[in-house]
Design a protein that fits this description.
With 115 residues, the protein is mainly β. It has no helices and ten strands. A hairpin with a 6-residue loop joins strand 5 and strand 6. It is globular, with a radius of gyration of 13 Å.
Length: 115
């Protein structure tokens, strides 16, 4: 299993970023996918989830209305569009498959929101 996150960076409050996660080594198109984040000095937390077909999504309350999770099963890639970013969104962001492969993690991508 390989998970490669990208798209992070430094952005001012109110800005946007689009994260990508390229997955391989498992049946991506049949797997529910999640985005997690780990703020500095804090526990990793679930941010968003998307069903295998993309027809169902879930968001933690703090990002609802600002973040959008999506996927392209033809490209084995899951995305996280982040708008109206706040300083409290600063974290390392990870994608993760639900189920048998859930112990697999990538290197993450750093998102820093600061003026």
């Amino acid at each position: 299993v390989q998970l490669v996150e990208s798209g992070g960076g430094m952005v001012q409050p109110g800005g946007s970023l689009r994260l990508s996660c390229a997955a391989s080594g498992f049946s991506f198109s049949y797997t529910i996918m999640r985005w997690y984040r780990q703020p500095p000095g804090k526990e990793r937390e679930l941010v968003a989830q998307i069903s295998s077909t993309g027809g169902s999504t879930y968001y933690v309350g703090s990002v609802k209305g600002r973040f959008t999770i999506s996927r392209d099963n033809a490209k084995n890639t899951v995305y996280l569009q982040m708008n109206s970013l706040k300083p409290e969104d600063t974290a390392v962001y990870y994608c993760n498959p639900v189920g048998a492969q859930s112990s697999s993690w990538g290197q993450g991508t750093q998102v820093t929101v600061s003026s």
